[in-house]
């Protein structure tokens, strides 16, 4: 077994392109028979996504090169077009039984052609219809394993954006995503194939791990019906929350990324010989190694619950929360301060880490309006945040006053952002962090402000913002619509003005984003035009 494994895992790099091709035996995929009786189609599909070990054979045999322009997302690299990577970057190939990535649609097609030539069997990429049929495994639900609207069962079947992923991305890159499935699959980035339960057809990783390239072209280049510009793609991968299998997703024909991989299908009604036994044996050893790491990550604590604050004498604040389960768990407490005069207001700052008890007493010397959150921590990795608790007095805002967007007292699906030295608030277009192409489920986003009016009045609403032309924002005062307006469509921040009206009363002012086109807001003001009797 050791001799075979070392022979299987050939080391390759782009330097082989300068050498003469060598004789290499390809690794054929482990196949599962598919029978779509609705259209009378029989074919075989790869049980797993094509691995590094398989693709390495192709490169070793042919000297094939992939453009060095991959958007690499790993422990050490955040995806950026300014720092492209390659498919054989060490972090991507050090485990040969993970899916091969960073090869793009053309690389996947060329691999299938080579395997066909070498074996005499018609291997190819699946169509999107074949992918969907296989991924659903005959079910009519959102996923092959059921509807799972709470996203609590998916971790048994798939490697998706989960608690472990959220914790690791924050540790590795300092980026805090706030949404994920409500479970822990034990993986961070893409992992060894076949680690999770298969669907009822016997196929693994059909929804997660990596997104899967297909041969289906959904858009051709203008004035050129022979060259595809967009291909359909399946799945959600480790970086995105899962959504329905049968929802349009696409990738540009020339895009190359480390979240995209592929599997093959074989056009045949009968399979004469299975040449994959050695591969399957070596894969079992890789899965055992990976499972050790998965089990460690599965011990990460969940987000703390029931954070509450109580204002005490002498400007002290008592904070308490439920204790997290597990050994070696500590807590990290953060606060954000609403400072109407200071810069960087509402940014989260660490108050104290390494807390062993589920409580802490903080001080609020300025009597400011403070938000608190707490994370459970184990081995340097933080859970998702607890609920938010508040302390202090929120400042009263008035009609006619210029209000910074970050001076909200509550929000839903928004995020603070720095743009051109400005601190702005973004109303999210993708609150649940789904893949950004194709259909995105709508979730409303809003900001609430304690802004009351002593009179009824016509007003001019001025907003400094950035948003697409089809962005639609609404200002509401309780059940009264104050104003509605669209974005200006530019890439710069501009002041937009519309006419509106306010009514007498103490109802809170709410800014709502309508639809999936978000906006970045710097400030707003409501200027009275006249006062009604």
From TrEMBL:
SUPFAM superfamilies: C-type lectin-like (SSF56436). PANTHER family: FORMYLGLYCINE-GENERATING ENZYME, SULFATASE MODIFYING FACTOR 1, 2. Residues 35-265 form the Sulfatase-modifying factor enzyme-like domain. The keyword Transport does not apply. This is Sulfatase-modifying factor enzyme-like domain-containing protein. The keyword Repeat does not apply. GO terms for molecular function: formylglycine-generating oxidase activity. Pfam families: FGE-sulfatase (PF03781). Residues 1-17 form the signal peptide. InterPro entries: CTDL_fold, Ig-like_fold, Sulfatase_Mod_Factor_Kinase, SUMF_dom, SUMF_sf. Keywords: Signal.
